[in-house]
Amino acid sequence: MSKKKKEVKGLERKITSLIINSPNKEFNYKQIAFSIGVNDTRGRGEIIKVLNTLLKKEKIISVGKGGFVAPAIQNETVEGVLEITTTGRGYVVCDDLDGDVMVEQRNLNRGLQGDRVRIIMGKKKTKNKYEGKIVEIVERKKEVFVGVFQKSKEYAFVNTRNARMYTDFFITKEEMKDYKEGEKVAVEIKSWEKAKDSPQGRIIKSFGFGEDALDAYSILYEYGLSTEFEGEVEEEAAKIKSIIKKEEVKKRRDMRGTMTFTVDPVDAKDFDDAISFKVIGENKYEVGVHIADVSHYVTPGSKIDEEAQNRATSVYLVDRVIPMLPETLSNNLCSLRPNEEKLTFSAVFVMKNNGQVLEEWYGKTVTESDCRLSYEEAQYIIENESTTIPKEETILKEEKRVTQKIVEAITTLNGIAKTIRKKRISSGALIFDKSEIKFQLDEKNQPQKILFKTSKSANKLIEEFMLLANKKVAEKMKQSKERFVYRVHDQPDHEKLENLQTVVKRLGYNLKLSNTELNGSLNELLKKCFGKNEQNLIDTLMIRSMSKAEYTTQNIGHYGLAFEYYTHFTSPIRRYPDVMVHRLLQSYLNNEQPTAKTPLEEICKHTSFMEQVATKAERNSIKYMQVKYMSQHIDRLFTGVISGVTDRGMYVEIIDNKCEGMIRVQDIPNDFFIFDEKEYTFVGRKTKEAYQLGDEVEVKVKKTDLLKRHIDLELIGKK
User: Fold this and answer.
1) Which of 117, 208, 278, 635 could form a disulfide with 213 if both were Cys (CB 3.0 to 4.6 A apart)?
2) 135 and 198: one domain?
3) DSSP secondary structure code for residue 255 in this structure
4) 356 CB burial (10 A radius; 0-12, 13-18, 19+)
5) How far apart, in whole angstroms, are the C-alpha atoms of residue 301 and residue 431?
6) pLDDT tens digits for 66-111?
7) Do residue 405 and residue 440 come from a single domain?
8) Cα atoms in the Cβ-side hemisphere of radius 13 Å centred on 657
C-alpha cells in the first residue's frame, strides 16, 4: 500500500469512528475537520473526498444540507470475536464496526473466550460503547480445556481456574469413571443446553496429580497441538531417499566450492539457512543466502504436505519443540549440517560493503556447509577477529579453530549488516532489542535458573541477511504480477498509540504521534529506555500497540520493517508459508503459471491463525516455567517494577528474572486504595500515598498457582 493510500485509510478510520461514536449527532465537514485536528484547505478537501467514499460504502448517512450521521445499527446483527475480561463481562470485536460491543455476562449465551459469535445490537451503553447480546455461536475457538477434577457423590465438575472462563464443566455420574479429586484432566464440551449454566463435559485425558501433572502436555492439549505424527506421515517421510542424484545436481547451480557456514543457537537441530561468502573484486562480494529446499522433498498433495499445512508452524516450548515436519526431514534430510551436501534454494547477491546490491540471482542450488557456528562463537570471532575460539565459548566446550576465510567472511559481513541496519532505521524501521527469556533446566525439567539472551552483532548479522533475502524475493515476485504470499504489517492503531503515549509520559518519556515523527520517536523511546528497569514494560506496551503481522496475497507493506514488499522465504523447515513462497517463486522462474485452484488466501489465513496459536502456547510455556521457578521462592523478597494497574490490583515485574505477579487491591497495606483509571494509579484515601506504573517496589512471593499460571505477591513497600 502506498503512503497516500495509508493516509486515506487512516482518515476513513478517524471519520468513521467519530461519527459512529456520536450516533445522535449530525456533523458537517468543517466540524469533522475541527474534531480530528485538520485545519488546512488541502486536508479539508481530502475529508470531503473520504466522506463521499464512506457514503458509497454506506458507512455513514447524508442528512439535510451537508450533514452526516451514523447509520442506525440498533437491532442489527453483526459478527465478531468474543473477548472476555477477568470480571466476566464480554466484548465482541466486530468485523463491520470500528469499536467493540459490550456484552454483559447474562447475555453471553454460552459464548466462550475467542469464539466467533453473532450478536444483536442494543442501545448505546456508554459514550463509546454499544451493548449487544449473543444470539449464535458461529464457531468455537477451543474444544478442549484443561482443569481440576472436583468430585461429589452423584456428579463432578472440572474447574479450569481460568479468570476468563466464567463456567466450569459438569460431569455426569456415567462420565466420572474412576477419576479422583484433584486430578488434572483435559475435558471437551459434550453438550450445552440453553437452560443450563454449565456445559456437560467429557474427560478425554488425565495428567495425574500435583505439579508434575501440569507439564507441557497440558499446554499442548489446551491448544490442540500434537507431538506425534500419524503413521502414514512418518512412513512417507521414511521412504524419501537421502542420496542426492547426479541428475539433480546437474539441474542446479553447484556452490559446493564456495565457502559456506551456518550460525544458529547452541541447542539448534534444524539448520534451515546458511550463508556463503566470496570476494570477487575490490569492495565487491558475492553473498549467498542458502535455504533448505524443503519443497523438493515435500510435494503438494502428499501426506507430509497436508500435515505441514495443517500444523503451519513449529512450536517452541521451553522444554521441547513441536516440529512442523517429521524429524527425518527437519533434523536430517533438510537440515544444513556441516560437511554434508544439501539441496538448497538460494538468493545470491553481488554486493558492495555499503550494502548496495549490484546483482541478484534466485534458484535451486547444491551447497555444503564448511562450518557450524553458534551465535556465541560467531560473536567471539566478531569481537576478537581470531581463528581460535576458547572452550568457554564453544558448543562442545573444547577449543575450536576456524579458517582465516571464515574470520574474514564474518567480519566483512558484520560490517555490511551494520550499514544495512542503519539504513533500515533511517527509513523508519522499528528496532526492538527485547531480551529473550531462557531457562536452565535440570534432568527432571525443573527450572533452576532464569537467563536472558540479548541480540548481539552475530544475531543481527544473520537477521539482516535473512531480511534482505525475504525483501528481495518479494520485490522479485511483484514484477511477475502473479499471486504471491506476502508477510504484511499494518499501521498501528492510533487509539492504542495514544494510550502508549499516556503511559510513557507517566514514566518520564516523550512520544510524538504525528505521521512524520512517529517512527523516529518510537525508536528514540526504545533507545532511551534500553537497559533501564522499565525497558521490558515499555517494549511490551509498544508491541501491544502495534498491529499483528500476518500472511496474505494482498500486499499492504510491512510497517515495522519499513518495507514496501516483504515475504518469508528463509525458514521452510519451521514455517509453511515459506514452503508456499518457494513453490511460487520456482513456478515464476520456470515461466509456469501457478495453479489457480490453490486457495492461497485461505491457507494464508490458516497459517496466520496457527502462528498466533503457537505464540500463545509458547508464552504460556514460559509463564508456566516462571510460576514453577517462583514456587521455589515462597516468602522470598524481590525488587520489582509496577508493570500494570487495573481495578483488581497491580502487576509487578521482578527486575532480576522478569517474572510477573499480582498484588491484589485489597492486599495493599496501610490504607484503602482507590483506582485512578486515567492516571494508572492507586491512591490511598487517607494517606494519599500513590502507586503508579514504573514505580520500583519491594515484594514478597505469597503463593503460586500452576494451573492458572499465576503468582500472588505481597507488597512490602516502595524502594
Assistant:
1) 208
2) no
3) -
4) middle
5) 39
6) 788 777 665 678 888 898 887 788 988 876 666 688 898 888 999 9
7) yes
8) 20
Domain boundaries, position 685: 634-718
Residue 58 has pLDDT above 80, yes or no: no
Question: Which candidate, 305, 280, 278, 279, places its Cα nearest to that of 294?
Answer: 305
- How confident is the model over 598-611, as pLDDT tens digits? 789 999 999 998 99
If we measure between CA atoms, which residue out of 497, 285, 266, 504 comes closest to residue 397? 266
**Residue pair 661/650 in contact by the 8 Å Cβ criterion:** no
**From the CA atom positions of the chain, what is the Rg in Å?**
28
One domain for residues 441 and 572: yes
- Structural domain contains residue 54: yes
C-alpha 51: how far from chain center:
35
- Residue 220 domain flag: no
Q: 484 is written with which cell numbers?
A: 504471491
DSSP 255-275: -TTS-EEEEE-TT-----EEE
Grid cell at residue 337 = 549440517
**Number of structural domains the chain divides into:** 6
For the chain, give the longest Cα–Cα distance.
84
> How remote is the C-alpha of 74 from its chain's centroid?
35
Tell me the three state secondary structure of residue 559: coil
* Average pLDDT of the chain to the nearest whole number: 88
**pLDDT for 507:** 83
pLDDT greater than 60 at residue 149: yes
By CB atoms closer than 10 A (0-12, 13-18, 19+), residue 691 is: buried
Cα–Cα distance measured from residue 697 to residue 156, given in angstroms and rounded to the nearest whole number: 43
Residue 450: beta bridge partners?
Answer: 439
Q: Which is nearest to 343 in space by CA: 297, 375, 401, 275?
A: 297
Are 273 and 317 a contacting pair, CB within 8 Å? no
* Cell numbers standing for residue 106: 447474562
What are the two backbone dihedrals, phi and then psi, of residue 138, each rounded to the nearest 5 degrees? -75, -45
Residue 153 burial (10 A CB sphere; 0-12, 13-18, 19+): exposed
DSSP label of 70: P
> What spatial distance separates the first Cα and last Cα of the chain, rounded to whole Å?
49
Cβ atoms within 10 A of the Cβ of 331, count? 18
Enumerate the β-bridge partners of residue 202: 188
In a domain, 56, yes or no: yes
Phi first, then psi: give them for residue 616, nearest 5 degrees. -65, -40
Residues 325, 419 within the same domain: yes
Hey, how many other C-beta atoms are within 10 angstroms of the C-beta on 344?
Answer: 29
If asked whether residues 417 and 503 sit together in one domain, one would say no
Q: Letter for the amino acid at 23?
A: P
